[in-house]
Amino acid sequence: MKTLPELFENNEEWRHQIEKEHPGFFEQLVGQQKPRFLWIGCADSRVPANEIVGLMPGELFVHRNVANLVNHTDLNLLSVLQFAVEVLEVRHVMVVGHYGCGGVRAAMEDQPHGLIDNWLRQVRELYLRNRKDLKQLPDEEARVDRMCELNVARQVINVANTTVVQEAWRRDQPLSIHGWIYSIANGRLQDLDLGVNNNPELRTLEADSYGD
């Protein structure tokens, strides 16, 4: 297990290596950040956003929480989204789930988990709505993984329905919402083909999702 002093030592090695490979990198980074992507992902420590897609600091704006949820009462997320869309003018918002998500798994269990149950309420409701179909899958792991995919679809719809995105589309600002999923087991990132660029595409996705 790493100690706190080792973390600072790692930082020294990292910053020297970055400066060696990209002279003047930090000086440029101080000037301005211009990411074109917003990543809304899970807080799981095994899902490092920048590393997964091979982007440097400053190239990816990131928000993370348990089970990569988009709640319309979450002022933290909404503030991040508004800044990303209106100030940074990102072109792409990616909702990124991961297979085997502990938050999704907890929402599927018929037992209390304390405070986190309040946060996971919408995932629980999604599970209950799809429980009949999920029972047709061969085992519990398959059911959890399918729920992780369904949760990504739900959160893509939630992002697209925020006032921030709706207002961006109303003023014809180029903005695409995507649904991706990551496998911790092999490191592969997969596009779930849930992309929406406008309200007609959103309505189609909503119709498909509510049909699950």
Number of helices: 10
Annotation, overall tally of beta strands: 5
Radius of gyration: 19 Å
Helix content: 40-55%
Q: If you consult CATH, what is the topology of the largest domain?
A: Beta-carbonic Anhydrase, Chain A
CATH hierarchy, class of the largest domain = Alpha Beta
Strand order of the biggest β-sheet: 2-1-3-4-5
Name the average pLDDT. 95
Distance between the termini: 44 Å
State the domain count.
2
Reported CATH architecture of the largest domain: 3-Layer(aba) Sandwich
Q: Which homologous superfamily in CATH is the superfamily of the largest domain?
A: Carbonic anhydrase
Judged by helices, strands and strand pairing, the structural class is alpha/beta
Globular, elongated, flat, extended or rod-shaped: what is the shape? globular
Largest sheet: 5 strands, mixed
What does this structure look like?
The structure is a single chain. The protein is an alpha/beta fold and 212 residues long. It folds into two domains: 1-31, no CATH class; 32-210, Carbonic anhydrase (Beta-carbonic Anhydrase, Chain A, 3-Layer(aba) Sandwich), CATH 3.40.1050.10. 51% of the residues lie in helices and 13% in strands. It has ten helices and five strands, in the order ααβαβαβαααααββα. It has helices spanning 4-21, 25-31, 49-53, 75-87, 102-108, 116-119, 121-134, 140-160, 163-170, 199-210, and strands at residues 37-42, 61-65, 92-98, 176-182, 189-191. A five-stranded mixed β-sheet has the order 2-1-3-4-5. Strand 4 (176-182) and strand 5 form a beta hairpin. Helix 7 (121-134) crosses helix 8 (140-160) and helix 8 (140-160) runs antiparallel to helix 10. It is globular. The N and C termini lie far apart (44 Å). The model has no long low-confidence stretch (mean pLDDT 95).
